[in-house]
Specification:
Layout lengths: L1 H8 L4 E2 L1 H8 L3 H4 L3 E7 L2 E2 L8 E7 L2 E5 L6 E4 L5 E5 L1 H12 L6 E2 L6 E10 L2 E8 L4 H14 L5 E4 L7 H9 L3 E4 H4 E5 L2 E4 L3 H4 L1 H7 L22 E5 L4 E6 L2 E6 L6 E2 L4 E2 L1 H11 L3 E3 L9 H16 L6 E4 L2 E4 L2 E3 L3
Parallel strand pairs: 10-11, 11-12, 15-23
Antiparallel strand pairs: 1-7, 2-7, 3-4, 4-5, 5-6, 8-9, 9-10, 13-14, 15-16, 16-17, 18-19, 20-22, 21-22
Helix pairs in contact: 5-6, 10-11
Length: 340
């Protein structure tokens, strides 16, 4: 696919139609909807047998010539020959970001418009990794872009390039030094034309090693994590007690069985459930709504509820409060069922 090489080779992503045709060939018909005519006209045009092309001289609207820089030979051309067409990068990169399943709106972050933030990759809710596109093919320029991204990002990032034309050992060291990932559009996406793309394989497969290195889904002594789908909210969460120590959890198409330790609610001194877990059970027994008239009502519940909310946020990665004030008490924003 010649689009990706064109991103690396066409200066400023602008040129007369013959320049785009040279780089795109027959694929130009698919790119044409993303090309926008510029107000300024070309000052030179490509010409067979020359490196710099011929100089454009406009005598009149209908009298335009291309002049040889050495012999001054002039050949007539038309206005259409000198119209500059610029790539609509915003639309193109929005299509790329959508195909990669990224969150956010792509924007240029410098390096002469050659470096873009495509969005954030969100493998599970609460875990976000910036994705940057660097479009230069020159190894040194690409290395500078990677260094800029490394300084810009506070987290491990995903570096995207059109191809691997700018590959170098130095670039690998920059990416690996930040425990980041490098993928290419040529290897990852299929172009459908007009800014539409399809992944050649699921993006989660492409970035599986990166995600496994930075997103710990299994429980540890201090941290627990459920693979909550990106964008999920509390009303999509279902917790059903199977017994006093275990729950079945489901969020959209993801599910699992977890104990109180998995959810970060274990007393490290004796491996028994914490008061936060017991409060979660109390909410379940009261069908998700705990008030002062409830059997398990207590003045201590205010602090325990906050601890429980913190544990649930950490486990599911959803920032919003999982509880809301209602009728003199709290109601769970998620579905909660008792084992009885």
């Amino acid at each position: 696919m010649r689009l990706w090489q064109s991103l690396e080779r066409v200066q400023g992503w602008a040129g007369v139609r013959s320049v785009w045709r040279e780089h795109m060939g027959d694929e130009l018909q698919f790119l044409q909807p993303l090309l926008r005519p510029m107000e300024e006209l070309a000052m030179s045009v490509p010409w067979p047998g020359t490196i710099e092309g011929r100089k454009v001289v406009v005598h009149d609207e209908d009298d335009i010539v291309a002049v040889d820089r050495e012999t001054s030979e002039a050949s007539p051309i038309t206005r259409d020959d000198i119209v500059l067409w610029q790539l609509d990068a915003d639309t193109l990169f929005r299509g790329v970001a959508a195909a990669l399943g990224l969150s956010g709106t792509p924007s240029s972050v410098g390096m002469g418009n050659r470096l873009w933030w495509l969005g954030d990759y969100v493998p599970v809710e609460g875990e976000r990794f910036p994705v940057y596109l660097a479009t230069t093919r020159d190894a040194q320029s690409l290395l500078r872009s990677a260094g800029h991204v490394s300084a810009l990002s506070q987290r491990p990032f995903v570096l995207v390039t059109p191809t691997r034309a700018g590959a170098s050992e130095e670039l690998n060291r920059v990416v690996e030094g930040r425990s980041s990932a490098w993928i290419t559009l040529a290897e990852t996406l299929s172009w459908q034309g007009e800014g539409m793309f399809e992944p050649k394989q699921p993006v989660e497969d492409v970035l599986r090693r990166f995600v496994n290195a930075h997103v710990k889904l299994q429980a540890t002594a201090n941290t627990a994590r459920f693979p909550t789908p990106p964008g999920a909210t509390w009303p999509e969460v279902r917790i059903r007690f199977l017994d006093g120590h275990t729950v079945a959890v489901q969020v959209r198409d993801r599910s699992g069985r977890h104990g109180f330790a998995d959810m970060g609610m274990v007393n490290s001194k004796n491996n028994t459930p914490t008061v936060a877990w017991e409060l979660l059970r109390a909410f379940a027994e009261e069908r998700g709504h705990l008030t002062w008239s409830s059997r398990k009502a207590s003045a201590d519940n205010r602090k325990r509820k906050q601890t429980l909310a913190d544990r649930l946020r950490a486990f599911f990665g959803i920032d919003e409060d999982p509880f809301e004030l209602l009728d003199g008490g709290w109601r769970a924003r998620f579905r909660l069922e008792s084992d009885s």
